[in-house]
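TICKET: design request
STATUS: open
ATTACHED STRUCTURE:
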């Protein structure tokens, strides 16, 4: 125990990596536990269609955020001026302006989205949800500074405290109103709570409005590729729900959203850790500076893949049982959906660490090339498969599209000396064996899902 504790102490890179990994896992795990608890309560207070409608609202708000992301976080993480007050204040000013633009966009999109999906509630729920985007624009850059230096303990605790307030408000409002409005207002309350806690509870530079021309140029130069990359990332992360909202009833979309929430938890956890951890590691320990750093990166990559894939296969194996345990009969089909979704996400988990090497080197162009390729393949295949084979066909394409995009990812990883073929072969082989066993075990439930009603 003393030896383990010694690895976590001090200010060396290894110690900061271990501490940050612990806090990121604990924070994300706590966050998802809160979401699950709230989801279970809300599933009894509301109805499946409510979760489907909230999924559409999320598609729009997340889509706007991603389509306008100028890479403030990655810019602060990788830029040599990432601790310069003038640079941070300029980034904060851009972030605030973006938040108000996003709120305005929710007002403009409310009517066309309501017409497209045939849901009049979107007309007034979307602008309310947009308030949370404007509030988030005021979040201090001290959050990104903490992640830049792998000092995320306090940020994690404050974030969880804000989520507790938001979830509590959501449940209380759902009990009183029995309406989707509770979910929308709960998100706004959580954004306000996070803003307040981060401003009060985080030490460091206090932001003020400032516009330094050189800093703005650096942020925009790097951010233009992030902007285009995250626009395509929207298609990867939200395109399935955007498409399903047109082809399946809101009830089915709500059930799918619950299945995806549970099945994707390990991958999203891995993505959160990877996004915050690998940029500092690639930045501070590049292989070009010392070939010995390749071994350190490999150990970290193996550990991350082993942990995330283990949880992903557990979700696939236990999916139907979990749904039967936690939800009532209205949500039964979320179980086999969990099995298929979890297995379809395996290729993305195996390859998730490579793209951050490009961002650490400031190579936004290569990052964009991979993100765009994957997004176009996944969205196009998901749309076609859903049209002809329904929801199960769409789910399968999430894994297939990542395999088709793999050559582009290899090109990116080789360019930045990050590709590890041994890692990929080991985990791909193990995943094929585990996936085949899980499919065989759940074959009856999967057959029932495959013969669901075709898309409308």
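STATUS: resolved
RESOLUTION: sequence designed for all positions
ATTACHED SEQUENCE:
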């Amino acid at each position: 125990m003393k030896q383990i504790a010694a690895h976590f102490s001090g200010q060396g890179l290894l110690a900061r990596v271990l501490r940050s990994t612990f806090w990121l896992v604990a924070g994300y795990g706590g966050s998802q536990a809160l979401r699950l608890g709230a989801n279970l309560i809300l599933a009894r207070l509301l109805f499946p269609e409510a979760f489907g409608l909230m999924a559409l609202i999320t598609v729009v708000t997340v889509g706007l955020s991603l389509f306008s992301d100028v890479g403030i976080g990655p810019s602060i993480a990788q830029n040599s001026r990432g601790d310069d007050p003038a640079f941070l204040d300029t980034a904060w000013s851009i972030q605030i302006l973006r938040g108000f633009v996003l709120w305005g966009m929710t007002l403009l999109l409310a009517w066309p989205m309501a017409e497209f999906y045939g849901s009049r509630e979107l007309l007034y729920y979307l602008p309310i949800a947009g308030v949370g985007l404007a509030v988030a624009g005021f979040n201090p850059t001290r959050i990104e500074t903490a992640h830049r230096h792998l000092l995320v303990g306090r940020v994690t605790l404050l974030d969880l405290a804000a989520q507790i307030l938001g979830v509590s408000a959501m449940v209380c409002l759902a009990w009183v109103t029995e309406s989707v409005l509770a979910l929308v207002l709960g998100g706004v309350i959580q954004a306000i709570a996070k803003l307040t806690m981060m401003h009060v509870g985080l030490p460091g530079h206090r932001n003020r409005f400032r516009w330094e021309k050189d800093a703005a140029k650096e942020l925009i130069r790097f951010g233009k590729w992030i902007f285009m990359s995250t626009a395509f990332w929207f298609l990867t992360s939200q395109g399935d729900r955007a498409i399903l909202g047109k082809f399946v009833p809101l009830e089915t979309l709500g059930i799918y959203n619950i299945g995806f929430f549970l099945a994707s938890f390990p991958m999203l956890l891995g993505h959160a850790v990877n996004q915050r951890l690998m940029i500092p590691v690639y930045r501070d320990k590049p292989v070009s500076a010392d070939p010995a750093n390749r071994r350190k990166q490999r150990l970290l990559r193996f550990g991350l893949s082993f942990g995330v894939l283990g949880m992903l296969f557990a979700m696939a194996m236990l999916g139907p049982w979990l749904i039967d345990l936690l939800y009532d009969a209205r949500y039964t089909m979320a179980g086999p959906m969990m099995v298929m979704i979890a297995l379809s996400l395996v290729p993305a988990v195996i390859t998730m660490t490579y793209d951050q090497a490009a961002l650490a080197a400031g190579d936004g162009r290569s990052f964009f090339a991979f993100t765009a390729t994957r997004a176009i393949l996944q969205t196009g295949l998901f749309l076609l498969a859903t049209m002809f084979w329904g929801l199960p066909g769409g789910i399968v394409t999430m894994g297939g599209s990542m395999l088709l995009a793999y050559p582009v990812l290899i090109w990116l990883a080789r360019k930045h000396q990050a590709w590890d073929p041994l890692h990929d072969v080991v985990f791909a082989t193990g995943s094929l064996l585990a996936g085949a066993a899980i499919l065989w075990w759940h074959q009856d439930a999967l057959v029932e899902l495959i013969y669901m009603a075709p898309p409308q």
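CLOSING REMARK: The chain has a mean pLDDT of 84. Residues 10-231 form one domain.
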